[in-house]
Amino acid sequence: MSTNKLIRGNDVDSRLVQIVPITPKLLAMDRAEAQTATVPPELAAYQPQPYRIGAGDTLYITVWDHPELTSPAGPQQATLANGRLVRSDGTLFYPYVGELKVAGMTIEQLRAAITEKLTKYIQNPQIDVNVVGYASQFITIKGAFIKTDPQPVTAVPLTLEQAIGVASINLADADLSGLVLTRDGQNYTINLDALDNGSAVIPRIYLKPGDQVYLPYNDRHEAYVMGEVNRPLAILFKTSDLTLTQVLGKAGGLNQTSAKGNAVYVIRGVKDLQKEPATVYQLDARSPEAFVLADQFKIKPGDVVFVGPASVTRWNRFISQILPLTSVLSNAAVSDYYINPTK
Fold first, then answer.
1. Candidate CATH numbers 3.20.20.390, 3.40.50.2000, 3.10.560.10, 3.30.70.1350; the one for domain 7-35+221-309
2. Given this model, what pLDDT does residue 206 score?
3. Rounded distance, CA 245 to CA 235, Å?
4. Distances (CA, A) of 213 to 7, 79, 141, 182
5. Do the domains spanning 7-35+221-309 and 58-133 agree at the CATH topology level?
6. What top-level class would CATH report for the domain 41-49+137-219?
7. Which of 10, 162, 164, 318 is the least buried, fewest Cβ under 10 Å from its Cβ?
8. Which residues form the Polysaccharide export protein N-terminal domain (predicted)?
9. Cα separation of 313 and 254, whole Å?
10. Average pLDDT of 132-158?
11. Per-residue confidence (pLDDT) for residue 196, from 0 to 100
């Protein structure tokens, strides 16, 4: 059971902070939440649509048994040289067919339209249409990737995993837990760790023309270790698997002479304290069980891990602050004696 309190000197204010002990029950609830996490239904439900031709695409139109229509530049030329470019207004000219408005058509719709037109001149024409140059629709790639070139949308459906594989993640600088997919003006956050470790149910996500994929850098996502540890520091996030044990280990562990074993806190703030309280998780590190709990407690970006001082530490610090003052007073008294020996 959690208790709500904020320690301000000797005062308690439950409106701003709630203190929650780190217990097996708390960890079980966190694991259950992670295992049931899914991507937004809109992304999971989307299925790729047939490719629609756009301005800038290059088409290769085959009319079987009629090489003069199929390869006007000559069969010895490359396929692309015999391709037909869709003009900026979305139109295409083809012999015996004339000008066609092809932008927005599927490949099958264009094949049927050309077949219908050529039937007047060729008996039972056999037509095939292929896109040999995709230049009208793209997926935008930004952030902590090695390759951020736009990726073309093709007749073969593209998944998020495939796009990420082509872009290649910059593992040294990326925050794998915060990928953002922007679609139709809506942002969707996806934890890439779940794709790798299976901690969440993530279905295959297909991309659609105009999607933007952004992977943030980890330079703004840090956890901070303060208080009675051997090496206070800030830790950059790369994944969401950073545990309290790892954080304390990177900080060199608790200071054995000054740390208070039951005063290990993880301070997790909120955007607006007026609407909801911040949470402070407390670990009692005096028992062996605490190390098991700490190894399963996940740290999040922005968390502050604070280890409080023991009572003797506070006393020693008080003495260390008083001693310099007493030395100054003693030196002043000695100086006064030599200056005024008759006093």
1. 3.10.560.10
2. 94
3. 13
4. 43, 32, 5, 6
5. no
6. alpha beta
7. 10
8. 47-131
9. 13
10. 95
11. 61
DSSP collapsed to 3 states, 11-46:
EECCCCEEEEECCHHHHHHHHHHHHCCECCHHHHHC
Which residues of the chain form beta strands (DSSP E)? 7-8, 11-12, 17-21, 58-63, 84-85, 91-94, 98-101, 127-133, 138-143, 151-152, 179-183, 186-190, 212-215, 222-227, 233-236, 259-268, 278-283, 304-309
The packing angle between helices 289-296 and 24-35, to 10°, is 20
DSSP 240: S
Q: What's the pLDDT band for 339 if we cut at 50, 70, 90?
A: very low
Scanning the structure block, which residue is given the tokens 């030599």? 338
User: In this predicted model, which residue has the larger pLDDT, 326 or 223?
Assistant: 223
The larger pLDDT score, comparing residue 216 to residue 324, is at 216
By three-state DSSP, how is residue 307 classified?
strand
State the Cα–Cα distance between residues 51 and 152, nearest whole angstrom: 12
pLDDT band at 290 (very low <50, low <70, confident <90, very high): confident
Q: Strand 91-94 relative to strand 222-227: parallel, antiparallel, unpaired?
A: unpaired
CATH superfamily of 58-133: wza like domain (3.30.1950.10)
Provide the greatest CA pair distance for the chain: 133
Query: What does the alpha-carbon distance between residue 280 and residue 234 come to, in Å, rounded to a whole number?
Result: 18
Whole-structure pTM value: 0.68
pLDDT 10s digits, 25-60: 888 877 766 655 567 788 888 999 999 999 999 999
Domain boundaries along the sequence of the chain = 7-35+221-309, 41-49+137-219, 58-133
Q: Which residues of 52-81 are buried (b: 16+ CB within 10 A; e: fewer)?
A: bbbbbbbbbbbbeebeebbbeeeeeeeeee
CA separation for the pair 110, 142 (Å, rounded) = 34
